[in-house]
Amino acid sequence: MTEHPEPIEPDDFADGGLEPEPADEPSVTIEIVGLSLYTRHGVSDAERELGQRLEFDISFELETCDATMTDRVEDTIDYADVCEQVALAAQERSYRTLERLCAAVADRLSERYGAESMRVKATKPEPPMPLPVEEVSVEVWKE
Description:
By secondary structure, this protein is an alpha+beta fold. It is 27% helix and 28% strand.
């Protein structure tokens, strides 16, 4: 016959004999999808002079996010500020490649928010190419 351990009573913690197991905090991923910005990036001079709309998808993981416990807006990331930071990084200078643009956005967000990992995707709808293409995208991951 198998012996079952004695049940733990709440008073067992009072004398310091037993400690409760720490609760695992959930991982938090923040995502922003479809941020549309008018920018001046591209290989050709015309793309950089005339500009065009780019769409950004941003995703990052937070090591800790107190808002999961507190439900306080102050204990998480301000999504509007994330969008503003992406806009600043995308509009303060012109890049020839989407790869460099995505890396610049990821660097800015990592510095500001201390994210554990970061994903930045930039999509160029209807790019100026000789053959019809709906869109081109570049995605950069940073850990």
